[in-house]
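Hi C.,

You asked whether I'd gotten around to modeling the 455-residue construct. I have! Everything is below, sequence then structure, no commentary in between.
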Amino acid sequence: MTDAAADLRPQAPTLTGRVLRNVLLPLAMTWLVGTVVAVGVANYFAEQAFDRAMLDDAYSVSANVEASERGVELVLSAREVTSVLFDQSESVYFAVLRPDGALIGGQPGLDAPQPEDGSTHRFSDIVFEGRSLRAVTLTHAGSNPFRVLIAQTTRARNALIERLLLYSIAPQIALLALLAAWLWLGIRRDLRPLQDMQAALDRRDVSALEPLAVTRTSRELETLTQAVNALLDRLAQSVSAQREFAGNVAHELRTPLAGIRALAEYGLAQREPQAWREQLERIAASESRASHLVDQLLGLALADETGFKREQLRLDEFVQKAVLRHLPAADAKGVDLGASGLDDAITIEANSTLLEGIVDNLIDNALRYGGRMITIESSGRTLSVVDDGPGIPAEVRDSLTERWSQGPAGRTMGRGAGLGLAIVARYARLLDADLRFGAASPEGGLRVSISFKDA
């Protein structure tokens, strides 16, 4: 996917935003439901208080209705009724009615539902002269029955509900905003190590695979850092294996390629077709050995990844083949190459590719830096390559198993790349074999021994 196409994709939400949303939305909904319930309860009790006050007014008016010669009469004057029903914020209406609806006193046309059976009063919502009113009807039984009706506007009730909503919702909104700010700061603080990890990875070079510092601010972040470090460790091992494989290929192919070139140059210097044929046959044989070597190296690389197969090998037969394989090169250098201890048939459990790499590298090193005699000794399950050369000082022998490390003879002669013995040491570890260096004799020389475990 191109960068332009990637820019057109909608960006994923930040972890901070998602956490805030998942926390604040349910909390806000919970607060909202709680506010509605609280306001509903407060409204219910406020309505009860207003209705009770209006019912008290109805009882006050009812107490001033008396029987007379002309029937039932309201003994209060209009001014006195106004004083009894006075309210600063509401408009109050009243009427005193006979059972047949005839007006005794008060506002003509004012009416409301009568109480149901068994009840002395009833509250209701009515419309009078185009205004919505809250009304109460109070009945008076006896020899002179009548009913008193009180109605008033609801401005005070509505204002009280609005104040309840305002005083309930506004503080909660403010608290929610403060909580959001506190959560945002806390989440950013807790996620800062994650941002630091990202910044550290962004600043790294592609070759920097050292582990990250583990930040112990949270268990999840610590686990994530450990997982990233485990991945970096696997990548480092893979890169190291690739580099080692490339070095092994370069080192191992140098000798057969040089031999092929020498054979070709020698053949080109000859005049007779028979000599050309002989050299071409040798070139073909050397190319076959080089191809086999490439297969061995690829097999080693595969062995590092998936393991390798062990098999039963005759150590004496393996040594004989190795001597015959290196004999032409030894004769060309005037070196006496031989073997000893091959009378006993010794069987070991190993991999032919790795074992061949061990023996070939030891013989090749001896031909490069040894003297005039090289002997391959087989003693039980131990294979030794012995030469009568200058040897290697004891203090530098262990370092020769490291890659790119050379002994004094190699540095003096300017040959090799310091990989031969490192490859031998690695192959020996893969075979669980013991690699040892020692002097060939009191006079000098070098003995390199490989001891294999019992099958």
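If it helps when you're writing up: The mean pLDDT is 78.

Thanks,
B.
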